[in-house]
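Go through this chain for my students:
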Amino acid sequence: MADVHPDASFAVEGQPDWMVVTDDAVWVTSSNVNHVVRLDAATNQPNLVVTIDKPCSGLAAGFGAIWVPSCGAHTLVRVDPQTGKTVAQIPAGPADSEGGVTTGEGSVWIVTSKEGLLVRIDPQTNKVAAKIALPSGSYVPAFAEGAVWITSTEHNVLTRVDARSNQVVASVPTGPQPRFLTVGDGSVWTLNQGDGTISRVDMKTNRLVATIAAGISGTGGEIAFGEGSVWATVFEVPMTRIDPASNAVVQQWVGPGGDSIRLGHGSVWLTDFAHAKVWRLNPKLP
């Protein structure tokens, strides 16, 4: 990481963690100071700070809002991205601090129970519209191809829920302890905390098609797709880039930094949780 020179470096008070990219900005949480910060992608300046009780378990954008799980209030908070004001607090708190929230098919989706319960929220009413049973230890959802995909860290599977019927339609074995996931190039990619591999699941066939040794086991971390590659991060190995054409690690950076990663606005956005920074990087790093 000593050889990496960011295009921009943002100081974010506390411990910057979860991020979501919008059309004009990147939003990042800092749970230990109860902040969600908007970083303007045009000016490379933070320009809005929203106070939320222990924001955790991911961020999502959609339906004219930023959706923030709160581990303090045990709710899902709807934030107006223009004013930073709380529009609604929905009693659908995250099942775990290492979870997620996603949007798709006219709804917001979040897992609210360690026993396995996916909740569908109608953004028109800010009310729960459906509840879907999942394997226990499911925490992180992602939306793609008309479905919500959720990893079960406890059962080593990826569950596919049809977003129209609210029914579980597939269960795909993955590597050990899958947690974070991303979608791209016709696949769902899971970061497996048990052995540091990445599982690739074909969305058309619901089958595991590759297991990629990345050497990034352990808790925390994240995975994202963009700029033609899969990107993963954990502490002390802040960036690992996988080529979908070869299903192989083609670049890896070690050293300080890492914990959350996103792609957008032609850049890689990487948090340095331990040193209160967010870096904006050129995805074509040597």
